[in-house]
Specification:
eight-stranded parallel β-barrel, binds 2-phosphoglycolic acid, TIM Barrel
Length: 254
């Protein structure tokens, strides 16, 4: 059975004290209120990762992650953070290729493939993001765009390596806009992605792949989204910045 994962991407939000308060609340609520089997991943800015990892170390189902990493191991790359450093801070996951990185930092599929390699080399799990813009959806080219993103970023991996990859489908037009893809739209894309993975690898690899949906997920739409057979969790932005709204999304995953 593939893992269900609810991840909260804080983006560039929360001072240290605010972040610690939020993690304390989330950990307490998850412990008291959630008996399901989903994993919860807290993805703060780099500078909070070590503290967050320590705070959740005793929890049975909460992990920490990073929002990005360098494709280099070490060296003269001022301002960059390596996957090895992230691992040494206690994190388990790294988001690669979030649309904000693709859009504002010009990260291409080839570039992201090297970041995925860095993540896997350090025994971390990559949460690889893909998603089309509104223009691409309206011109009906979204399946081509998604196929290119997924194949160029990931299909150089062996089937064994692919076991440490999660894919997040995040339509760019739904991120931070309050507009969510309908469950049918999301399910259609998730099934398409699983089909690509099945074609390139095999049925078992595809079956074991966790595919998260991201883009304005809230407690109100999570139950329906999670009822779809190929939606295995969520990558949450805005609603992850408050304990109540985030934990209510976690609770929507049975
Ligand atoms: P959102 O962000 O939930 O605020 O739309 C999702 C994301 O960017 O991962």
């Amino acid at each position: 059975m593939r893992k269900k994962i609810i991840a909260g991407n804080w983006k560039m939000n929360k001072t240290f004290d605010e972040g610690m308060a939020l993690v304390t609340e989330i950990a307490g609520m998850v412990k008291d209120e959630y008996s399901g089997s989903a994993q919860v991943v807290i993805i703060p800015p780099f500078v909070h990762i070590n503290a967050v990892s320590r705070m959740v170390a005793d929890s049975r189902n909460i992990f920490s992650g990073a929002q990005n990493c360098s494709n280099h191991d070490s060296g003269a790359y001022t301002g960059e953070v390596s996957a090895g450093m992230i691992k040494s801070c206690g994190a388990e996951y790294v988001i690669i290729g979030h649309s904000e990185r693709r859009q504002y930092f010009n990260e291409t599929n080839d570039w992201l493939a090297r970041k995925v390699d860095a993540v896997l080399k350090n025994n971390l799990t990559a949460i690889y993001c893909c998603g089309e813009t509104l223009e691409e959806r309206e011109s009906n080219t979204h399946f081509d765009v998604l196929k290119k993103q997924v194949s160029e970023g990931l299909f150089h991996l062996t089937a064994e390596q692919f076991a440490n990859v999660v894919i997040a489908y995040e339509p760019v037009w739904a991120i931070g806009t309050g507009k969510t893809a309908s469950t049918a739209q999301a399910q259609e894309v998730h099934a398409f992605i699983r089909g690509l993975v099945c074609e390139h690898y095999n049925n078992q690899v595809a079956d074991n792949l966790t595919i998260q949906y991201g883009g304005s997920v809230k407690a109100e739409n999570a139950v329906e989204l999670f009822s779809a057979p190929d939606i295995d969790g969520a990558l949450v932005g805005g609603a992850a910045l408050q304990s109540r709204s985030f934990v209510d999304i976690v609770k929507a995953m049975k």
